[in-house]
From TrEMBL:
Gene3D superfamilies: Dihydrodipicolinate Reductase, domain 2 (3.30.360.10), NAD(P)-binding Rossmann-like Domain (3.40.50.720). PANTHER family: CARBOXYNORSPERMIDINE SYNTHASE (PTHR43796). This is Saccharopine dehydrogenase family protein. InterPro entries: NAD(P)-bd_dom_sf, Sacchrp_dh-like_C, Sacchrp_dh_NADP-bd. It comes from Candidatus Scybalomonas excrementavium. Pfam families: Sacchrp_dh_C (PF16653), Sacchrp_dh_NADP (PF03435). It comes from the Bacteria. Residues 141-387 form the Saccharopine dehydrogenase-like C-terminal domain. Residues 4-137 form the Saccharopine dehydrogenase NADP binding domain.
Length: 400
């Protein structure tokens, strides 16, 4: 059906690429392009004998719009799937605009030097994408992504009005290391060491990092501590779910992870302020990334499950209604299937599905859209088919 240019070849991209290769009728051709081309070539070598999808590779530095434009012109894809880092979102969107090609990503733009992620930069492209007749689909991972689609689905099928959403992200996987991050350490640590915030009655309420803690008994996992974080889908859901009064996001963290993080923070290792080291400027967080285990090495060691979903409270036919929609994913099964653990899997599968929605024309509107702005039904169906089945639970236990 079409050709996709995939930018980035890390943990999430590897899963998305495996999934595209399982879905050759839609993904007839893919070009994997990244900064380190050897990673793209290694993946091609592994996957080409197993799939009808034609795989090519290329080297690109996605910080440079001109390089991206030249690559898109050469490869002529129908769509660019951005699975590099949030820092590259705008350069890749610029290149898509210049060449008239659809765009999909999994995380919103974040300037490298401020650790502040919000949609304003990407939403500023709305009119230009509309005029060019192309689509930018923002946030097609799990959270944002599936959690946003769950919200649209709950609204469409179960509620007249949703007033409260709690997004719960539980990773009960154990990799056996005292401290490691499940995806890009730099992005992960920037996210968890930032101030928390939630949306209430039309404005943001800010908290200290990890200030708000709750305990929740997760289906198929059990009781875990979870902490309120700022998370990007809150910003778009606050606009796209009418009648919303509050949206919070909680993520589980074990004690060992938090103790290590606190210690690293206290000694300045999580800072993104450059320092001089032996006559050279380095960024402590980037140095820390270099000494931590590579997230892609965690796959074979990780046991246990993830459970990510949303609890909704709202109204149906004038009565209060509560609903929980979640997915449970098993680290070891993911590793067996695609050679990655569940955190990369739960992001890579929806990235493939988002690309499929645009390639097949199932989702079709020019402009820049967050994922909950499209019809959730075909995406929900695809989740069941492609490895992330979901459960709808009526009257769940609520988070206080
Ligand atoms: P990784 O660090 O594993 O992979 C990033 C890839 O991007 C690497 O292949 C890297 O290349 C490449 N890259 C980085 N900079 C450039 C550049 N300038 N030009 C070209 N390629 C570049 O990250 P993950 O796979 O863990 O994460 C990928 C994305 O997914 C991130 O944006 C992350 O925020 C997002 N994410 C979203 C989630 C969701 O649920 N929505 C959950 C988890 C992640 P190299 O090999 O040379 O370093």
């Amino acid at each position: 059906m079409g050709k996709v240019l995939i930018i980035g070849c890390g943990g999430v991209a590897s899963v998305a690429i495996h999934k595209c290769c399982q879905n050759s009728d839609v993904f007839e051709e893919i070009c994997i392009a990244s900064r380190t081309v050897s990673k793209c070539e290694a993946l091609k070598e592994k996957l080409q004998p197993t799939t009808k999808t034609k795989i090519t590779t290329a080297q690109v530095d996605a910080d440079h719009v001109d390089e991206l434009i030249a690559l898109i012109k050469k490869e002529q894809p129908d769509l660019v799937l951005n699975l590099a880092l949030p820092y590259q979102d705008l350069t890749i969107m610029d290149a898509c605009l210049a060449t008239g090609v659809h765009y999909v990503d999994t995380a919103n733009y974040e300037p490298e030097d401020t650790a502040k992620f919000e949609y304003k930069w990407q939403w500023a492209y709305r009119e230009r994408f509309e005029k060019a007749g192309i689509t930018a689909l923002l946030g097609s991972g799990f959270d944002p992504g599936v959690t946003s689609v769950f919200s649209a689905y709950a609204l469409k099928h179960y509620f007249d009005e949703i007033n409260y959403i709690d997004i719960l992200d539980c990773n009960a996987g154990d990799h056996g290391y005292p401290f490691a991050t499940n995806f890009n350490p730099e992005i992960n640590i920037r996210e968890v060491s930032a101030k928390g915030s939630y949306w209430e009655n039309g404005h943001w309420v800010e908290t200290e990092p990890m200030e708000i803690k709750r305990v929740y008994n997760f289906p198929e996992i059990g009781e875990k501590d979870m902490y309120l974080l700022h998370h990007e889908e809150i910003e778009s859901l606050a606009l796209n779910i009418p009648g919303i009064k509050r949206i919070r996001f909680f993520m589980t963290f074990g004690e060992s992870y938090l103790t290590h993080l606190k210690c690293l923070e206290n000694v300045g290792m999580t800072s993104i302020e450059p320092i001089m080291y032996e006559g050279k400027e380095i960024i402590p967080l980037q140095f820390l990334k270099a000494v931590l285990p590579d997230p892609s090495s965690l796959g074979p060691r990780t046991k246990g499950k993830t459970n990510i979903g949303c609890i909704f409270i709202g109204k149906k036919d004038g009565k209060e209604k509560k609903l929980y929609i979640y997915n449970v994913c098993d680290h070891e099964s993911c590793y067996k299937e695609v050679g990655s653990q569940a955190v990369a899997y739960t992001t890579g599968v929806p990235a493939m599905i988002g690309a499929m929605m645009l390639l097949t024309g199932t989702w079709k509107k020019a402009g820049v859209y967050n994922i909950e702005e499209f019809d959730p039904d075909p995406f929900m169906e695809a989740l069941n088919k492609w490895g992330l089945p979901w459960v709808v639970e009526e009257n769940p236990t609520l988070v206080d």
